[in-house]
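Example 3.2
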Amino acid sequence: MKFVNIRLLPQEALQVIETLNAHHFDAFFVGGCVRDLLLGHEVHDYDITTNAQPAQVIEIFSNICKVLLTGIKHGTVTLCFAPMAIEVTTYRIETEYLDHRSPNKIAFTNELRLDLARRDFTINAMAFHPSLGIIDLFDGQTDLKEKRIRCVGDPEKRLEEDALRILRAVRFSVTLCFTIDPALQFAIQKKAALLTYLSKERIRDELNRILKSKQTRLLRMLDQLFILPYLFPQLVPLRLLKQETPWHLYDVFEHTDRALDHSIGAPLPQRLALLYHDCGKAYTKTMDANGIAHFKGHASISANIAESALKDLRYDKKMIRQVTSIIYYHDTYVNTTEVDIRRFLYGIAFDYALAYDIFAVQFADNCAKNPHKAQIKNENIKQILSILHEMEKKNIRYTLHELAINGSDLLALGFQGKEIKACLEAALLQVIEDPQKNTREQLLNYIQSNKKDI
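Structure, written as tokens:
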């Protein structure tokens, strides 16, 4: 285990410790910052615990820095040393938890031991002082060394107190590549239903961190912990849903899990799209006379399911629109010609960023299929991406604004109202097919020659 290099600690945080000590109060770095310092990871937030009462902390620092009282009811005072904010919390104990989430009562204490004992996991229950070193009352350093997530005390009691600890255990496990202690794993399985007490926003925020991890077989892990139905109920019907087709080797659930494996490190919209991309297969499966399965229209239904799920998890409209658009087009085949790519881009309003997302998801999706069949598709995607990149560099975009004609030209020909829009759309499609036709003369001749069909 690494020692804490004091020289790496920010001066502002050390100043808080020194100032509290100078006023004859205890003060320790605590929680996640100690864990990350010992792991040699980057520390984003420094939390300090002290036996000074909040009023005393405010009095000491009011002339040193800006003091925020946003967490005062929980004994937390935020000290602002721009751009750094340091939370200082009085030693406390918590009792009478409400709704398996928040303590109904907190009481201040003078004992660091009691404050550390209320914390969730041993790796988060260590304190550090620049002179006194590590205070590790629950063997957190051993758990760090052995890469284990273990509760402080009885795991069932810890989860009963705060159901968010279920997701925090999973998050720390997948982001740190640690195993979950068997006793904690059993407690999670037994108490999985406590997740219903969490707000959708809390669940969403933890899921985002989990999806950004490098964990493989993530869905299988969540399923084995019995928490999948509470997080992604839309995936439950995919268990053992066979895909009797030459393109697939796995059932839909296993395929989805493996597709996620092939998108590790991808942006969150792609990860979310892969999570829900085949949910519609549970409602579209048919079998033909040859015993081959088909899932016609599943992309559209999957997009609708994803939209409902993401709304329920309180994702913003932009994210929902992006994810559902990716899913809607994830099964769309595009030929490797520039005209076909132009047609595809026209369908998504020449949104190149969305196009890259769609093809990245298609690639990961294909990687989770029969490799002998999927290889050709992924070679095509590589060619498409190359052409797409060149088109983007040339800023190729065909919209009504780029047409060589406009509404005034059509008014002069006697067109009115909706006819004008229909004619312009028809002209745009001609230009998509052949950009050389984007001249005033050719487009007006086309419209006049085909006005009965437009």
